[in-house]
Structure formats: structure tokens, C-alpha cells
Specification:
single chain, alpha/beta, 4-stranded parallel beta sheet, 4-stranded mixed beta sheet
Length: 538
């Protein structure tokens, strides 16, 4: 009797075991228990175990586990030599169905098939694939159910005023003697936290000075941690309940003791908000200078970092330059770069026939919307009239026939009146709404026809928004030309510049005659608004 080479060689396998926490290793499905089950199964099938890899304390959300990576290296070095990888359950392998499928394909390329104890006996029956796919999906479904239940539990605890998170904010410790969720109780750092709030609330000191003083007193927090402490409502005895699918986020009163009063906490918030707004204005004022309209939108052609701009002194004058902040020392005269950019914008005039076609398309759309609005107004009017008739019937049932008691009459009348008020407000909003087709469309097209003039006349902030909308990606200026890696398809379609957009010799796109843009929704009034409507109807 003849045997094939496959029959003569014994089947080989690697067994893999995993637990995610120390608790799992001690209680429940331990590593030793998994190994014992897998070795017995391999022995029953007559399969020789060549290696055992185990990961202890690693999650199954991905495959970044040290011993699993060693397993992969072993299979790569022994391609087509290991027929099976045995695990007890798919959840020991992965809890993400996408990762499971991708890794399964990779292992098959090495000649290795993943087998679990839930899959049953090996078979070539195609119907077994359905069972295998279901078993692969179950761990992710289990993960999602756990995640949903955990989030629901956290929200429920927060609504009841309990702090459900594992760590305690600085200034608090957890009293685990409580019957329910552990309570937050002020600890020895609480007076230092209160002092930090009180000093900052004077408004006389920068937050960094307060942090450094608190550090010396024993409240050792980094900058980000210190700022988060001032923003945390826990210190005022409040808890934030995050937004859910059915409910908005809100603050609730906690059962724990507050370290600072609500008045002091709100005063600190006002100071923080005011300083944030002031600093934002100062940064904007500093960046948006007329000499550097392209600052923040240019990247270095050598290192890829964003270019900044500054004034250089020399030869008896001051000269603006765009330059890189890194050691590559690339820079270009800002006046030359700005002039070349204006020349480029001057090429962005769409053909008149395209403008006329676009205007006709928008007019049809606007008229359709006008019709829809009239229908909605009519429908609301009919509903309002129905509710008014219902009010008359209620009056009759109460005062003429006596069929309705006072409590029912009051409740139903209040509900009907609220419905009438709500519908009336909706109808009034629709009646005063004005689509302003001429304003939006004409100004939008005028912007397209003379983009250079609009850019020159716009305020710095409006220029910034206009640039960010036209060019979704940063620009690169090199050898007198601009290029970008992304163009807005809407504006490219209007300009009919689709041909030649992609450079076959490089990934970037040279835009000597091309543009992209979804023009800013605010900034240049009223033309920018008009252009926003134009792009939204394409």
C-alpha cells in the first residue's frame, strides 16, 4: 500500500493560550487549564504539539501581544510546516471580527489553520464555514454588550450622584466601606486644592504661577493636570453626566462632600473663559498679518513642516519672509510668494457658459425649495386649525354638555394650547425665511469670476477662511510654483479643470491652473455666503 508524503508526515500544531487579567489567571479560565484542554485535544487527534505560546495579562482587542508576535515569527520561519494553531475559544484569539479575519488570512498564507475547541471536528463541508464565522463574531458581540452595560452602569451611578470611575481626583480618596459605590471623601490634599482655587479666583496671578506655588506646598500636578483640576465640577460637589443617545449631558449634585463652594468654582470658570478668549484673540492678531496672508497654509518642500513668517532686517530695510522653523533653513521672500499666489488666483475664472448653467441649476433647486416651504406652511396651517376646533369641542364638553370634569378639561386644554403655540412658531419661522436666491447666487458667482480682487479686499480672518476652504490641504511653494496634495472636487467641477489635475510623475498635484475649494461659510460678506450656497447645490 502506497502512502503520500502528506500521510507519512505527522500533523503538527502550535497551541496558544491567553488571559487578560491576573484575576482570570487565578479564577476561571486559567492558562494552565487552557493548556491542558488543548494538549488533550491534540493528543486525541494525533497531532504533535511543537510549541506553546502564552500571553498573560494582555487584551484581545488587537494582536500587539509579545508572545503572539513571537508565534508569528516562528510561523514565518517555518512556512508550510505547521498545519494548525489551536486555541480554546475565538475570544482567546481575538475579540475583534475584522482583526480575526485579517489575521486568519495571514496565518493561512503560512500554511497554518486556526482551530478552536468550539469548531468541532475538521471537515471540508462548506456549511461548517457558517458555524466558524458565527464563532468568530461572538467575542466581538460579547465585547459590545459588556461595553454597553458598563456605560449604562456608569451613567446610572452618575445620575444617582456617585463617582463611578476607578481613580479618585486629587484632593479626594475613596471610602470603600460604603455599601454601594465607593464614596469620595476629602483627603489631606483637599486644603491645598481649596487654596489653589481661592488664590486663582483673585484674578491676580497666572495659572502657572499658582501651579508652581501649589507644587512647593505639596500639590504636585503637571500643567495639564492643574488646568483640568480647575475645570472639574467634582470639586464643587457636582458630577457631569455625559450625553447619551436619548439624553443631553448635564450636571447633577453628587453625594460626596465639595471641597470648594459653587460660587468659588463658577468664579474660577469665568476667569478661565475670559483669559482663554483673550489669549485666543492675541494669538490670532499675531498670526494674521497683512504681510503673511499664506502663513499656516504653506509647508516646507524639504521637511514637510508648516512654514511660518517673520520680518528680517538688512540692507537698511525690513523684509518679510516665509520660512521653516527647522534646521533646513528654507525660506522665500513673502512679497514674491504673495504675488505669485495672486497671479495664480487670477487664472481661476470659469467659462461664462458654466456660470450660466450653474445659475440655471441653482434656480431650479431654489424654486423647488420654495414650493416645499409653501406646502409646509399650508400643512401647518391646517394642523393649527384642527387644534383650534378641538379647543371648541373641549369647551362644549365642559360647559355645555358637562361631559368632562374640570381636571381633564384643564389638562387637555393646556396640551392643545401648547401644540397650537408650537405649530404657530414653526409656521412663522417658515414665513419669514428668505432663500435670497439673487443675493447668494449672484455674489457667489461674482467671487468666482474675480477671486483675486475678493482675496485682496478681504480682512485677514476672511482670507484665512477662504484659503482653508479652497485648499483643504496645505500648499507647497517651490521654484515659483504652487502645488497641493488635495483639491476640492466641487470647485474643480465648476471650473472644468478636472483634466490634468493628477500629476503622473508625483503624488502631489501641481496647480498652476487648477484649484479646489469649498468656500468659507462666513468671512467675506455677502459674497462668501453666496458661494457657500453655490457649492452646496452641486
Amino acid at each position: 500500500m502506497k502512502y503520500s508524503a502528506r500521510d507519512q508526515k505527522p500533523k503538527t500544531a502550535i497551541i496558544y493560550t491567553r488571559v487578560s487579567t491576573d484575576e482570570q489567571a487565578d479564577y476561571g479560565f486559567s492558562l494552565a487549564h487552557q493548556e491542558d484542554l488543548l494538549r488533550k485535544e491534540c493528543a486525541r487527534r494525533g497531532i504533535h504539539v511543537v510549541a506553546h505560546y502564552k500571553d498573560e495579562g494582555y487584551s484581545a482587542k488587537d494582536f500587539k501581544r509579545p508572545y503572539f508576535q513571537q508565534l508569528l515569527d516562528y510561523l514565518k520561519r517555518h512556512k508550510k510546516q505547521i498545519q494548525y494553531l489551536f486555541v480554546t475559544k475565538w475570544c482567546r484569539f481575538s475579540r475583534n471580527i475584522e482583526n480575526t479575519i485579517l489575521m486568519n488570512r495571514e496565518l493561512l498564507s503560512y500554511g497554518t489553520r486556526v482551530i478552536t475547541l468550539d469548531d468541532g471536528e475538521e471537515s471540508d463541508n462548506p456549511a461548517n464555514l457558517l458555524l466558524t464565522m458565527l464563532n468568530m463574531t461572538l467575542p466581538e458581540i460579547d465585547n459590545r454588550i459588556r461595553s454597553r452595560n458598563t456605560k449604562s452602569g456608569i451613567v446610572r451611578a452618575l445620575k444617582e450622584g456617585y463617582y463611578p470611575y476607578g481613580y479618585a481626583p486629587v484632593g479626594y480618596s475613596k471610602d470603600r466601606s460604603a455599601l454601594k459605590t465607593p464614596l469620595l471623601v476629602p483627603d489631606d490634599k483637599a486644603p491645598l486644592v481649596r487654596e489653589a482655587f481661592e488664590v486663582f479666583a483673585t484674578g491676580a496671578f497666572p495659572i502657572e504661577d499658582v501651579r508652581k506655588a501649589s507644587w512647593k506646598n505639596g500639590l504636585r500636578l503637571q500643567r495639564s493636570q492643574f488646568g483640568q483640576m480647575f475645570r472639574n465640577p467634582v470639586y464643587a460637589g457636582k458630577l457631569y453626566v455625559p450625553e447619551t443617545t436619548n439624553e443631553e449631558g448635564c450636571l447633577v449634585k453628587g453625594v460626596h462632600e465639595a471641597i470648594v463652594s459653587e460660587e468659588l468654582f463658577l468664579k474660577v470658570q469665568r476667569i478661565l473663559n475670559k483669559r482663554t478668549e483673550t489669549n485666543s484673540c492675541l494669538r490670532t492678531r499675531e498670526k494674521l498679518r497683512d504681510e503673511f496672508p499664506l502663513r499656516g497654509h504653506l509647508t516646507c518642500p524639504e521637511c514637510g513642516k508648516t512654514w511660518t513668517g517673520s520680518i528680517s532686517s538688512g540692507n537698511g530695510g525690513k523684509y518679510p519672509y516665509y520660512h521653516c522653523e527647522r534646521s533646513c533653513k528654507v525660506r522665500v521672500n513673502a512679497d514674491f510668494a504673495n504675488e505669485r499666489f495672486l497671479q495664480f488666483l487670477g487664472t481661476l475664472q470659469p467659462p461664462q457658459e458654466i456660470i450660466d448653467l450653474q445659475m440655471a441649476m441653482m434656480e431650479v433647486l431654489f424654486k423647488a425649495k420654495e414650493g416645499d416651504r409653501d406646502q409646509q406652511i399650508h400643512k401647518l396651517g391646517v394642523e393649527i386649525e384642527k387644534h383650534k376646533q378641538n379647543l371648541l369641542k373641549l369647551d362644549q364638553q365642559r360647559f355645555l354638555t358637562g361631559e368632562m370634569d374640570a381636571d381633564s378639561y384643564k389638562r387637555l386644554k393646556m396640551h392643545t394650547t401648547e401644540q397650537i403655540d408650537r405649530l404657530t412658531i414653526q409656521m412663522n419661522d417658515l414665513e419669514i425665511a428668505d432663500t435670497a436666491f439673487e443675493k447668494y447666487a449672484r455674489y457667489g458667482m461674482s467671487l468666482l469670476k474675480d477671486l483675486t480682487w475678493y482675496f485682496q479686499e478681504a480682512e485677514p480672518q476672511a482670507r484665512r477662511k477662504l484659503l482653508g476652504s479652497i485648499f483643504p490641504a496645505k500648499l507647497v511653494f517651490q521654484d515659483g510654483n504652487y502645488r497641493t496634495s488635495a483639491l476640492n472636487p466641487a470647485l474643480a467641477l465648476i471650473l472644468q479643470k478636472n483634466n490634468g489635475l493628477q500629476n503622473e510623475k508625483a503624488e502631489d498635484i501641481t496647480i498652476s491652473e487648477n484649484v479646489s475649494g469649498d468656500v468659507a461659510r462666513a468671512g467675506i460678506e455677502p459674497a462668501t455666503q453666496g458661494f457657500s450656497v453655490l457649492c452646496s447645490t452641486i
